[in-house]
Amino acid sequence: MNPRFDSPDDESGIAVIDPVGSNRVALYTPGSVSPEPADTDGFVYPVSAARRFVTSEIRFRYAVQVSVRRSDGAYLCDLDPVTNREFDDGEYLLEVTGPVKMYLRVPSSISTERTDDGLRFEFGGDVEVELGARLPHNTPAATITVPDAPAAAMDAISTFGSALKTTSPERSWPTLRGHPPRIERGDELAIPDELDAPDTGITIHVPATYEHVLPVAPLAYYLGARVVPGDPPRLTTTDGFTHRLGEGDEFGDEVARLLKRVYVLDCATRGEGFHPVELPARRAVESVADLDFATLYDAPPVERLPTYLSVPETVAEEVKPTWGRVTYARPVAESLELLPYAVYDLSIVRAKAATPDAPATVGANDTTGEDALSSFKRRSDLADLGLPSESGERAAGVPDPDEYVPLPEADALERAWIGDGTPVHGTKLHAAAFRHERTESTDGVIEVTVVCNDEEMREEWDAVSDVYGARDEVPFEVDCRFGVTTDELRTLLAADRDLFHFIGHVDGRGLACSDGLLDAETVDETGATTILLNACRSHDQGVSLVEAGARAAIVSWGDVGNSGAVEVGETFAQLLNYGFAVGSALAIVEEYTSIGRHYVAVGDPSVAVAQCEDGTPSLCEFDSDSDATSHTEGVRVRMTSYPSAEFAVGTVVHSYLRDGEEGLYTVPGSKRFENTVEEMREGFGNDPGPILVDDELRWTDEWFDGE
């Protein structure tokens, strides 16, 4: 799938559109332009489509990260969020990191100016600019058939490294890591000939059990390593190096530590390459080890890895890498189908038996949960609506108590589960979500449908109707309906939408409508990418909608009180509208709303409804002892950036709260800054963003206006 080019809706310029992800980046020009097809070979870096046009200026009306290079790709500098720059007459390549990766070839002098809402480039007159763009390799390019045997699974996982664009430290950049091949179960092992795994000289030896095979998959992918049967578990190289991976409970911990350690050292070393900037990881490594990074950068993997592992383990403690997701997987053959998707996200994978355990009624953080649940419930008993009441398993709408799986607390932003049963917290990866073809958007507009089918829940309908589409730069089309019939609801579910948000009553027999129940099991196809069913016991209906075509569904596994559900629904709407992926939004809702731990997600946790104007969706937290009311005194804040499809693990964030290398860190990750409130107001821009004040989730627009 190639990017498309169009015109911005409101001004002259050119819009670059990701037709699958519904992402778009607009470049504004002083006058109208007539883009024509251009050669894709002249950009040094790979691009899949290109246009040329004449202009004297280009403006971005939102935060973008730009690296300035010479026409041959030689690095000059990164543009920080506050400094204006001048470049003499020459030929330049501007590398723009955003929802779509872009390169601008400019044969001219360049002046850059940071504006209140973005970035402006002024050239030395009218010049012909060439614009190239590429989309990420974020879907499997081949399929491997694997029989139900751990040794065969090892052969399949050994091909995952074929998706890497490089085995150098540059693999820590997400755009240089492609998607591992798809796995399907069958009678015989069948690996397509075109899967060319790199010969790195690195081998991982583990016992031929799923308990050992599943956890090493992300490490094998990232290292480009082969996986073979062997005991004790260890990593070896063709040069004779051996590193033990531990046994028993220590095995999973050591595999996770090793992946994090190699990734951190890659981030430190890659500063010798395409992007010679000094990240915090580089300074942390230099504080505990004396390494020749230039030599390491050029060394083959078989030589680089032993040097990495000679660095004291304290380097990871110094850097404290934030990890995006830990995925727990049942150690059975059925888990293999979803393994490539967890690996692509560079998730830590942990083998875990599905230990039955009934979930608690109220989560540990639900300080107001009992009050919320004692209020009017969005319960599964629909008799009050004049609809037939029915008891029994079918009406329950949720799994049996012994089908719930408690997931351990994890050192990551999110948790996920692969296997039978439903996690009490986090996302259940569902194979159907990853099989669906990704539909192509015609215009890059974010399309949202909101349906409310109960007058007593109108408060949430009113609130979220105002939230969706409240963005300056991202075009939305929001369709709000009230009191729809079963036929109307079926039609709305079938339409191609980015998000379908339902507010009302649900039980295992269906979604309540003005004339009866619509059972999601009878919905042959849904065009909605993401579903939010904000109702009691909506789990089973959400699963059916994922099986019918949705890529993710946010559902409840119990009764939810109306006041708590309003809070949850509005918070989900704000987070999804801002640009958080489903899994990240769920993690925040679980932690910072009164009954958020009554909700889970089913499907693909990486699905996002809208792109984030700030680049990476971030959560800003004030230190508890900071004076958050002072405009002139420094306020200490911690900015945590969450991964997204466009800005995955390894992306560099240049915070708008600091300039130069002080403001750099990697995604996912956190960094502390000290700023005045006025500086923060300017940094956040026009679109409201989430902040934590005294451990309470708030939004910048209301907080700045109310302080």
Summary of the model, kept short:
By secondary structure, the protein is of the alpha/beta class.
- What is the structural class? alpha/beta
Number of strands: 40
- The percent range for strand residues is 25-35%
Q: How many domains make up the coordinates?
A: 4
Q: Tell me the number of helical segments per DSSP (H or I, 4 or more residues long).
A: 18
- Which shape, going by the Cα principal axes? globular
Major sheet attributes: 10 strands, mixed
Radius of gyration over all CA atoms, rounded: 25 Å
pLDDT under 50 segments (min length 5)? Answer: 356-375
**Order of the strands making up the biggest sheet:** 20-19-22-24-33-32-31-27-25-26
Mean pLDDT: 88
Alpha carbon gap, first and last residue: 47 Å
Helical amount: 10-25%
